[in-house]
Write a structure and sequence with these properties.
Strand content of chain A: 25-35%
Distance between the termini of chain A: 36 Å
Helix content of chain A: 10-25%
Oligomer: homodimer
Largest interface: A-B, 41 and 41 residues
Number of strands of chain A: 8
Radius of gyration of chain A: 16 Å
Structural class of chain A: alpha+beta
Number of helices of chain A: 3
Chain lengths: 135, 135
């Protein structure tokens, strides 16, 4: 724990001051480059992600730390992390367990394309949410 | 103008209610899939982007509508737009004029990689910001 604290002190820092302590994390498939989702991280989820190698976010709707995949099993193993010029956005390049990041069952949350003002589904449906999220 | 208003009424809508009227736009190179930057759009910049085919954002630092490239000439021509499951994030797939999106001269704003707690530069430097942004 002490070592862990020392390590945090010497690390380069992200800037969590702008958006109520949250910054966006863009999640990309590490092999195909497909953008899978966007979620938000706070400082706690940032360090948790670095420590565990699994993507942790801050759930704005549930107001709690969120290990992606804690319900579905579809965890995201971190392969690489990139930081932007302002240190207020990151890219997580991940290996997506189960082949789908979206809670609606699509490979990517960005499964719709804007065409003439309409949002048309063109993404790949991988699982049935009713099966995966049933309690 | 009237036609334009009617068109907006019939279009599918993004949800601008969560983050003070702003939602994130992930900007991706339409050919390579490289994530170039992340910026924010409000409703005005969204419609401006759709109408002109060039990426418009809302500058949080200058608090104004921002045509990307208005100073540098490095505009982003929209090739495709994707919308996420919650309608509160978009992906702009663009053709980046000048080959660089970052105001620091790099192809991508995500020019640093996190390695053992350090942010190490590994991105491609395309231009000298002092040359491009001089007045």
């Amino acid at each position: 724990m002490l070592l862990c604290r020392i390590k945090k002190i010497t690390m380069d820092k992200l800037n969590f001051t702008k958006g109520d302590g949250l910054i966006p994390a863009i999640v990309q498939d590490h092999q195909t480059g497909e953008v899978l989702m966007l979620a938000y991280i706070n400082e706690e989820s940032w360090y948790k992600t670095l420590e565990t190698g699994k993507a942790h976010y801050w759930s704005r709707s549930r107001n709690k730390l969120w290990l992606k995949g804690e319900s579905s099993g579809h965890v995201q193993v971190i392969r690489e992390i990139l930081v932007d010029c302002d240190e207020d956005t990151v890219v997580f390049k991940v290996e997506q367990a189960g082949g789908a990041a979206c809670h609606k069952g699509y490979a990517s949350c960005f499964f719709r394309k804007v065409e003439n003002g309409s949002f048309n589904v063109e993404g790949r449906l991988v699982f049935d949410p009713k099966e995966v999220y049933r309690k």
